[in-house]
Amino acid sequence: MYGEPSTALVPMSRRLTGPGYDMMDPRDGYDSYGDYDGYPPTTPIMPRSRRNSAVSLFSNMNMDAGYARGTGHRIKFKRKGTLMGGIGLDEAQARVRLSNNDAYTFHDLHSDHHRRILLKVKWAGYNSLTYEIPLDGWDRRVNLETLARRVSRACVHYLQANVIPILWDRVVLHHLEEIAYGVWQPMLSTR
User: Fold this and answer.
1) What CATH code is carried by the domain that includes residue 154?
2) Number of domains forming the structure of the chain
């Protein structure tokens, strides 16, 4: 069926001198031949470093913490022409004009490839809820008024879903704070 066996000579450098693969179990801690430790052989060549033109948002992150800490970025909401920061949830839904409306980019907010961020809403004494908020904008700039309106809707839904006994038009949205990469938490207070 396969023809006659080959009589070609195999050089010594190409012959198997150790045990066959079926005789070795990489899970065994004991290697009777001492030439197989379960890991692929390493090369003495040092790996190439990254090019200097490569851009990295974070340098070496501390992996001892077990999680990525918030970046401390803040998205501030302030009515145009006022000195005090923060807008009411009712004002945000009424499309009030905000100062620095195009100050933030999609990259600044660490949005995903669908241009969405996660919003984790919390109120003291209640469980948190996480919302997916789509971002809207032009020329790589986020429309802050649209973001404020969508965040306001999520906060109102949270207050109603948890039956929190407070009028939502008395709640003020001061800013969003990044608690993890792409995850934002609104800082709320009451008037």
Assistant:
1) 2.40.330
2) 1
